[in-house]
Design the sequence.
């Protein structure tokens, strides 16, 4: 799927997409590419309000490793609410 960005200057191609719902939030993970390369567009939607970050493909491994470290760290913490579970 080819689409234009908000400025209409650089067409982007959607390569793959994932949607994650957590509580009242929706997260969209869109793998895209344009003439400058591939990137991940991560959008958080809370009641129609959206915040977005763009992550270049060159940073994927660093972010992945950081997520793994944070997941491992979180597993070692005491639960903040007895009704919630740690990341598994």
Sequence:
């Amino acid at each position: 799927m080819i689409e234009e960005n908000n400025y209409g200057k650089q067409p982007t191609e959607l390569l793959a997409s994932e949607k994650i719902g957590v509580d009242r939030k929706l997260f969209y993970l869109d793998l895209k590419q344009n003439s400058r390369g591939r990137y991940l567009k991560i959008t958080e939607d809370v009641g129609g309000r959206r915040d977005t970050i763009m992550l270049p493909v060159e940073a994927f491994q660093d972010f992945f490793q950081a997520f793994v470290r944070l997941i491992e760290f979180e597993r070692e913490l005491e639960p903040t609410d007895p009704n919630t579970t740690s990341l598994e």
Observations:
- The beta strands are 2-4, 11-22, 25-34, 37-46, 49-56.
